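Supplementary notes for students who missed Thursday's class. We covered one full example, reproduced here. Read the sequence, then the structure, then the short commentary at the end.
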Amino acid sequence: MFYILASSFLWHIFSEDSYSDNSTVSRKDFGHAVEVLSNYDGDTITVHIPGHKPWKERVRLIGIDTPEKDQGKWGSKARLFTKYATRGSKVYLERDVQARDKYKRLLAYVWIETKKGSLVMLNEWLLREGLAELFTFPLNVKHGQAQKDLHGGQKKQGRNVETRGLDMSPSRYRDLH
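Structure (token representation):
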């Protein structure tokens, strides 16, 4: 039963209309693609950056906070979304002012190359799908206004984790567990 539900969810999520590409962004803006090795939850991934030491880095997506992986169905959905969105795709990292968070993870906007060759920002895609809430990191606000506008629109439509029945915010959940 789980596989049927997961397949249905993923079919909807990854249909051509589920994301909007950003034709003003070019792969040249980001340098080399990185390889996504795994994801911890919806907003933290582990990548291999070619020619970089250490050979693998944990990356925290800037501007969003997804439910924790053990935070019920929304945590599982966010984790699966990130896993399948990045699987087998060319992925690029865009840095902002602050390089790392207090856990020494790289902070980045994560861009995924679509089958059509355009780029979509995973951070905003998670917001658009209602799987993340806005979580601004001080100093890292390059895309902050766009993310804030997107989050506000999703909230008005009842399409975000706060209005879909998540019993507490991810940050509150982390504080209590």
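Commentary. The two ends are 29 Å apart (CA to CA). The CA atoms of residues 59 and 106 lie 5 Å apart. If anything here is unclear, bring it to office hours.
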